[in-house]
Specification:
Blueprint (H helix, E strand, L loop, with lengths): L3 H5 L8 H19 L2 H7 L4 H4 L6 H12 L12 H18 L1 H10 L7 H14 L3 H24 L6 H16 L7 H6 L8 H20 L4
Helix pairs in contact: 2-3, 2-5, 2-7, 5-7, 6-7, 6-8, 6-9, 6-12, 8-9, 9-12
Amino acid sequence: MSSPESTRRRPRASLSREAVVDAAVVVLDEAGPEGLTMRAVALRLDSGAMSLYRHVSGRDELLDLVVARLTSDLRGRPATGDWRADLGDLARDVRAMLLRRPNLTLLMTSRAGAGAGGLATLDHVMGILRGAGFGPRDAAFANHALGNFVAGAALWEAVGLGGASGDERGERAAAAARDMASLSAGAWPNVAWAAGSLFAGTADDRFEFGLAVLLDGLAVRLEPPD
């Protein structure tokens, strides 16, 4: 007689590499990078953990496959040859992707330089920067600066103001603005000076401002010396 555990598990033939990655994406959304383990994915598939090793070599490869799967759309937009436009569009695409899946921000950060999952995206970005005329060092640093900005902006937007969203976020922002406006100018002169603008604009406004400043700074690096 089979045990209850064995009757719950799928037949081995029903598993596939794609199904394993599909389940891993769900686990990432629900439990975050730390919760994305071989055992958790196996439970999601109603299978045994050892059966997953027929399709992936281990957790590191599984993490790389998840990153590759979730970032695959980032190479879909063809390059125009205008490096500012191409980097700007890519930054917006990455932001939208990270807002849909906040846990992906942590996963991509933790896997940076540790696996092959993000290589296709990195190669795409470096190709844009190389085509613009940046040298290897400046291209590498520009990619890092852009990645830090987008990831930070997406993380702030996802969890800022206590993780509120929609009307609640707007209400909390308005309350914070009122609190700032009530501060003593004598005790906090600079905060009081900027109080009316500290929570002004939308998240899109703030992101576009920061992105423009960053791209402006990169453009200066391409200007020939006097």
